[in-house]
Amino acid sequence: MKPTGTGRAVRRYAVLVAALLSVVPACGQPPAPAPGAAATSRPDPPAPPALPGPTGARPVGLRVLELRDTSRRDPWDPSRSRELMVSLWYPARHSTERAARYVTPRESELILRAQRIKGVPADLLSRVRVHASRDAPPAAVSGPGLPLVVLSPGFSLPRTSLTALAEDLASRGYAVAAVDHAYEAAAVSRPDGRVTGCRACHGSPDGRRVAATRAVDLSYVRRQLLGRPGTADGRLPRLDPARVAAVGHSMGGAAAFEALRTDPGFAAGADLDGTFHSAGTSRVDRPFLLLGADAHGRPGADPTWERVWQRLSGWRRWYSVTGAQHASFTDYGLLGERLGHPAPGTAREAEDALRITRRLIAAFLDDRLRGVVARDPDDVARHDERIRRHQPRQRP
């Protein structure tokens, strides 16, 4: 069975990146002077775009880890074990460490090449400004440890596409691990110098296979981070094994549901506008949130959402965001908007859509993982006219 969402995600991302990068000359070069203007009066080029600042009170640190699951062969390269690059954001002490980088120049170059974008600076995407400090020491943690959120990006998108959400959650007291599923993104840098591409993007892979493989990835990352030796010497924050959530965008949302369905170590999960691809029919009795775009997240738009809704026997919520599109839950819609060229497939109010995403996910996690009653997602929805809550009827 070929998925209905995987191939569309690849095409949708290609259009999105092309539109985003169509503004590069304005970003990387000064505009041409007006007729008759002196050459010396040309203004300096504008500053690179920045992701929105975190809304929490704590500084954010970032460490990049490579994890290897030697018990599995990679489905896209059976000659190798499954290799996962992970970005771990966390509350940090105030630090003078260097600022983190959004992507490397080489990753930027390969993303542009994969999308056949020519005539633009190859390092454009590496100029996006973020707010975390690389390798900053973790802040002191009291109690059993920080709650952990494991993030899975959309198919063909890198883990960095969820940076704005990750930085915000980390500033609010969460450890956040975003996973690059091997050979499912246009460019992923590895410590040995390799930069791998998206082998899985060729053809139309079975969505159930992709979601199931990713779910195993998320479970592996959860176990590895909880047992990571760096927590003993202060290089990594201490984590609470009882408070772990899986959150994903697009195919990553399908993976988050599969992770909850197959791994009792996840206490909660959320899907950001992803079609579900499930290989099983078991029920999920832990909290799960569905957050969709305008055209996709309404009842009747995607039958997989109604099927999954019937299988959620614990706390559950279904919201959609008026005016939002598929990319509104990632960094890319916002970056296109801030460059003055909203990309096709994103909401015109991209900054507002990302703000809603960060507020709703934070409220959901605060409520379900931390028991903070004052931060209920329903309260966020009641006070924002763009958020619609849906309550499909339960089948008899």
Automatic annotation (TrEMBL):
Listed Pro residues bias regions: 43-52
Keywords: Hydrolase, Lipid degradation, Lipid metabolism, Signal
SUPFAM superfamilies cross-referenced by the UniProt entry: alpha/beta-Hydrolases
Leader sequence residues: 1-28
Domain of life assignment: Bacteria
UniProt cross-references to Pfam families, sorted A to Z: PAF-AH_p_II
Region Disordered: start-end pairs: 30-60
Entry-linked InterPro entries: AB_hydrolase_fold
UniProt protein name: Lipase
Species this chain originates from: Streptomyces dubilierae
